[in-house]
Write a structure and sequence with these properties.
By secondary structure, the chain is of the alpha+beta class. It is 33% helix and 17% strand. The protein contains eight helices and ten strands. The strands form three sheets. The protein has a five-stranded antiparallel β-sheet, covered by helices on one side. Strands 6-8-9 form a three-stranded antiparallel β-sheet, with helices on one face. The protein has a two-stranded antiparallel ribbon with strand order 7-10.
Length: 260
């Protein structure tokens, strides 16, 4: 059996997850309980409101992304009456937000820009997952109506507003066009694993799918400011391709993420 302080490993995983010493992973805001051993990752999540991302969503996206961009290998997925469980191989390396990575802030900004350009260059016609505004605004509305939005976690410019306020603004300021690419959906530094000079894995991809490229760029810019410093935003955007960036859309998709 795993360490008594570790996760409750479902019996169905007895063959794919050997006895190991597990430690909790507290980085990230997905809401799932995450554990890691030397070789494996186990995510555990209670069944949620339909507007929330499920581990089944992440499993399907990981399977599709495999071979296209570096992602963890799915080992198994099971569900019971209360929870769902996703087992994966652990990606070697550290998150871009790790202190040892942020010591090389310029390199992290460069690697993140290149990783997103690679992801966004995948043929959109091949992607079966849709997260365009008709979908994401509907999900946002459902989350607001279900009381799932944490208003205390809003970006500073929206502090003091209600979730309804933000939703109304999003509806009234919806962009007329979407620059559709294959997106990560939560493109912040903790979700990109690096080792040496390479991005070894994209993780937490439960919201990946077809959407405006600014879905990723807005979150990347915000994460760079928080983890690396504002001076690295411009180098990131320059490396990604400044001609592709719309500052108005950066603001819009940052607000949309506040309801995610």
């Amino acid at each position: 059996m795993p360490d008594t302080a570790g996760p409750q490993v479902p019996p169905a995983f007895s063959r794919i997850l050997p006895v190991a010493r597990w430690e909790p992973v507290t980085l990230g805001e997905s809401g799932a309980e995450v554990w890691r051993s030397t070789r494996h990752i186990l995510k555990i999540q209670p069944h949620r409101h339909p507007a929330a991302t499920s581990l089944a969503d992440e499993r399907e996206r990981l399977r599709w992304l495999a071979g296209r961009v570096p992602v963890p290998t799915v080992l198994g997925y099971v569900t019971d009456s209360a929870q769902e469980y996703l087992a994966m191989e652990r990606v070697p390396g550290i998150p871009m937000s790790h202190p040892d990575a942020t010591l090389h802030a310029g390199r992290m900004a460069d690697l993140l820009a290149r990783a997103l350009r690679g992801l966004h260059s995948l043929p959109a016609r091949d992607c079966p997952f849709t997260m365009t505004l008709p979908v994401s605004l509907r999900l946002a509305r459902e989350r607001v109506e279900a009381g799932l939005v944490d208003e205390s976690d809003f970006d500073p410019q929206r502090q003091g507003q209600t979730a309804v306020d933000v939703l109304v603004w999003l509806v009234n300021h919806r962009p007329q066009t979407e620059d559709i690419v294959v997106t990560h959906g939560d493109a912040c530094l903790p979700n990109f694993i690096v080792q040496g000079e390479f991005v070894e894995g994209l993780i937490d991809v439960g919201r990946a799918g077809l959407a405006d490229r600014h879905t990723d760029l807005a979150l990347a810019v915000r994460s760079i400011r928080r983890n690396l410093g504002s001076k690295w935003v411009d180098p990131f955007l320059d490396t990604y391709g400044r001609e592709l960036v719309d500052d108005t859309k950066l603001d819009y998709y940052a607000a949309l993420d506040d309801l995610a």
